[in-house]
Amino acid sequence: MRFCKITVGDYEIPVYSCNTVIAGSGAAGLSAAVRLYDFGQKDIAIVTEDISAGTSRNTGSDKQTYYKLSLEGSEPDSVREMAETLFEGQCVDGDIALVEAALSVQCFMKLVDMGVPFPVNRYGEFIGYKTDHDPRKRATSAGPLTSRLMTEALEREVREKNIPVFEHLLIVKILKENDKVAGLLCLNLTPGCDREKMFTAFCCKNIVYATGGPAGMYAHSVYPESQHGATGVAFLAGVRGKNLTEWQYGLSSVKPRWNVSGTYMQCLPCFFSTRQDGSDRKEFLREYFKNDGELLSKTFLKGYQWPFDVRKARKGSSVIDILVYIELFLKNRRVFLDFTKNPIQNIDFSVLNDEAYNYLKKAGALFGTPVERLLHMNAPAVEFYKNHGIDLSKEPLEIALCAQHNNGGLDVDIWWRTNIEGLFAVGEVAATHGVYRPGGSALNAGQVGAFRAARFIASKRTGDPADIASFEEISRPQIEEITGLAAKVFKNRSNVNELLDYTRRRMSEVAAAVRDIHRIEEYIRYVAGLIENFAEKVCISDRRELKDVFILYDTLISQYVYLNAMKDYIERGGKSRGSALYYDPDGELIGNLPEMFRFKPDDQGMSNMVQEVTLTRTGVKFNWRPVRPIPAEDGFFENIWRLFRENGSVY
Predict the structure, then answer these.
(1) Binning pLDDT at 50, 70 and 90, where does residue 301 land?
(2) What architecture (CATH level 2) is domain 488-626?
(3) Between 20 and 30 A from 135 (CA), which of 374, 395, 494, 516?
(4) Which CATH class is domain 2-246+407-473?
(5) Closest CA to 247 of 604, 513, 426
(6) By the 8 A CB rule, do 431 and 445 touch?
């Protein structure tokens, strides 16, 4: 790594030069750094706001899943079968599915060797279980904090290898030369940093973009508050998006942000809503369900069927997600779970459907209050909230319908390359999934993507970046755009956080689990106007608020592109699918719900098509193409061996 300084206007900007910068410090980013080092590419650096922040380190569930090829028992499994499972998720490219299946064991065993405690039986088999959208027992777990354990193990490796980590840096621009990576520009978040030292630059040949999902778009989010993403920065650099319409939304607590899945629902808590001031308690589920058995059974099933799934909106438990949405946005109320009170007075468990009744009977939980049942079935679930200052035996838990995961993102190939030369995207920011995916497959995808990007860089993209004189010439006008924006927003008042709150809440209302083209178009106009007049409409009075300015700008760009993707999907005849209900005036209404919940279920007519999205100077452009099939590779050993000897099969 080389170091120098350049002067741009009033700013003295340190520039660090190296072969590869890894942007982000979650499980995928850290894994990419470790793999690069192991493959011999050691001229690297990690850039992050805070190595202890982000999604991987600060999320989980009652049993956080990791998905890989089955490694136990007598039930047959194969790379091809796992690839087919991933491919069946709709709108998935088969070549990427094959890579994720083929490398799942190698990447999983790397984590095991680093000390992540995935359970084995006495014979050494890695015991698994079936997860959602999984025909085999491919799922495993190291507990509620699987991804944190992964991240901690990977960070230990990074520290042991002395890989440089630059903290307190917010990515604000990908620097380019035509359609090729030149470097990164970051805002320095170090407390007390002098004004003229507010920016730091990196000159590099490659960027591994591991910035996570664009969580900052939504107010109601189960992502940790430290996670906002930087997908808008990538769109501004011309990176192509894919499957942007496909998300997962589900019920989660507001503080702390945590999925209320599994036993949190199977213990049968009582749902209620209040006015904003906490008054006027109403147990709103009773207004919809016809009888006690239906109310209790649907609540129980919400544990199994946690993500909102429009296929389960009519007869399944996803109607509960809609009822929560109605309370939050149509009635402007707050929603809570009460674990101290049964949803039915003098509860009669015999009215449960057979699945729910038999489960609770086997668990020995046909008694008491919800919190007593939860303590009996999963005491750590109660302890988790107690550790965060909430005693479920004494107080209610506020929840919302929250964004949980983006299945789409930045378009990549089988080496996790984007359409910008030298820019690789790994982890949730990369679009390797479609409408549905097996639980835990995102953790596998992050590790596989990191492996593939590192392998390609170490094989094909070695060497030094541009010399500093060339870098300064290329980057100066791009840096001046950012420093100019920073100067223009300084005024005598501040509205940046007010705008962040408003735009995020609007996105949760009009473009999350419930979508309507007219409301989407209306909000697109607002976002476009704010982007066009950003420097005039956004103001801050304190330099410490510059971070929020750039986060807001990234958020607005992301929203603009994602909203337009949703609009285009509807205009091309797209119907309700996955975790999104699209209003259709010719559809059917669920029960006695408001008109806005009339919809037509997807007939899978577009399940073999992929929507590609590019932000241009004149707007957003779309390209629809067929998915790439699962490759039928030549498996003749001598042929593959010859290629492997020639180029390591990296091409």
Answers:
(1) very high
(2) Up-down Bundle (1.20)
(3) 374
(4) alpha beta
(5) 513
(6) no
